[in-house]
Structure formats: C-alpha cells, structure tokens
C-alpha cells in the first residue's frame, strides 16, 4: 500500500480542508515513529482515554505539550498518572509550518503557525474514532494531521452535525491532511482501519499512527 503505482493527487476536500498524499518521506516517517515511541513510554503512558460516560476510546493516545482529556487541555495528565506531559519540541513546530505551507502555500499563515500540542493516536485494526469536532482549542488556527502505518477511511463531514454530507478519504502512510478556515470545526472521524495495509519500513509493522498538531491558544 505504501508504494503506489500511480501518484495520488492533492485534493481540496472542502473549503480549507486539503489532502496531500505521500507528503512525509520515508525517513521522516521513521523519525516520527521513533519520537512517538519515546512519548508513549512517558512521562505519561499511551492509554485508552476514558470518556465521561465511563466508556474507553478504542484508540490509544499520548499527548505532547498539552494533555487533552474530555473535554479540556491541561499541562498535567490528571486522568492518567498526574505527570506533566512531554514538552512540545521546536522541530515539531517546524514540521507543522512546513505541512501548512504544503497544504495552503507558503505565506504568513504557515510562517506564523505555532502548534503547541500534539495528540498522538495509535489504532490497532479494530480501533475507530467517532465523528467529533476539535473544539477545545481557543485558537482558530488549522489542525495538521499526519498518518503513518496502516491506511484508514477518514470521514470528513460538515460543521453542522455528525451526518451527511461527508466525504470519505483514504489516508495512507505519509499522508498529510489539513483542516482550517471554514472547515476548522468540521466533524470528522475514522470509521475503519485497513488492517495490514501498512508501512513496515516506517518502523510500524502493524497498526496506524495519527498525529494531529494544534494551537491551543492557551498560556
Ligand atoms: O486519526 C485520525 O486521522 C483523526 C484523529 C482525530 O480526529 C483526532 O485526534 O481528533
């Protein structure tokens, strides 16, 4: 799946929502997988987030910079082990700026983009993510999403509700997806992971890794 016969095209899925296939070259995928493995070891471990109703999300998550728990950000992982999350590294700010420039073009928005949190999600083949909005951030800056490993169906919807209209996009290893502007609060989710479609050369023989970079707007 990672080596494609025909190049896939960049696509504007909705106003402000752009899919850039194969954006991450293999060496950057491997470096990100290594970084995610290190974050998953601590200071806060990779865990299934528990929702207010008591159910646990099927994906496993670790956060960098700010810790997300339903439905707020904090510096410490009070719903896990109380530890302060890993600092957000400068190189990840640089990666976010490059990603925004690739999606929207190089300009003041990409140069000024300063993500300060990353949600690192690991999906096994049974994991899913329901339709939701990313709305705990006070900043209106775009969300940058990077995918590595198994492909998935990424459902990108509208800003009014979880239902139709939506577009299903196949996100594969190395793909970038950015949503901002009029699409910033669009509902989105992952109804399916395509098991064993992945990218062993990225250092992830099984499963899917998704990293979303965001500006929280918090101090
Ligand atoms: O895994 C994905 O592609 C989406 C992740 C996501 O929606 C989130 O972290 O809020």
Automatic annotation (TrEMBL):
Annotated InterPro entries: Alkb, AlkB-like, AlkB-like_sf, Oxoglu/Fe-dep_dioxygenase_dom
Residue ranges the record marks as coiled coil: none
Taxonomy, superkingdom: Bacteria
Record bears the keyword Transmembrane helix: no
PROSITE patterns: FE2OG_OXY (PS51471)
Alphabetized GO MF terms: dioxygenase activity
Domain Fe2OG dioxygenase: 114-217
Keywords: Dioxygenase, Iron, Metal-binding, Oxidoreductase
Cofactor(s) the protein requires to work: Fe(2+)
Pfam families to which the protein is assigned, alphabetical: 2OG-FeII_Oxy_2
UniProt protein name: Alpha-ketoglutarate-dependent dioxygenase AlkB
């Amino acid at each position: 799946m990672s080596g494609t016969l025909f190049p896939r095209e960049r696509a504007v899925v909705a106003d402000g929502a752009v899919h850039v296939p194969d954006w991450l070259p293999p060496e950057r995928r491997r470096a990100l997988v290594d970084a995610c493995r290190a974050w998953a070891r601590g200071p806060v471990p990779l865990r299934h987030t528990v929702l207010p109703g008591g159910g646990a999300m099927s994906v496993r998550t670790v956060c960098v910079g700010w810790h997300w728990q339903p439905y707020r950000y904090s510096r410490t992982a009070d719903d896990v082990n109380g530890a302060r999350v890993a600092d957000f590294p400068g190189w990840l700010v640089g990666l976010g700026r490059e990603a925004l420039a690739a999606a929207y073009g190089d300009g003041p928005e990409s140069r000024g983009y300063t993500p300060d949190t990353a949600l690192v999600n690991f999906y096994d083949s049974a994991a899913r993510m329901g339709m939701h909005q990313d709305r705990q951030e006070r900043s209106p800056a775009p969300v940058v999403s990077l995918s590595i490993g198994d492909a998935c169906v990424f459902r990108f919807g509208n800003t009014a509700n979880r239902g139709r209209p939506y577009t299903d996009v196949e996100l594969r290893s190395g793909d970038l997806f950015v949503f901002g502007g009029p699409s910033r609060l669009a509902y989105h989710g992952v109804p399916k992971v395509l098991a064993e479609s992945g990218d062993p050369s990225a250092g992830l023989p099984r499963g899917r890794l998704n990293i979303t970079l965001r500006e929280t707007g918090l101090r």
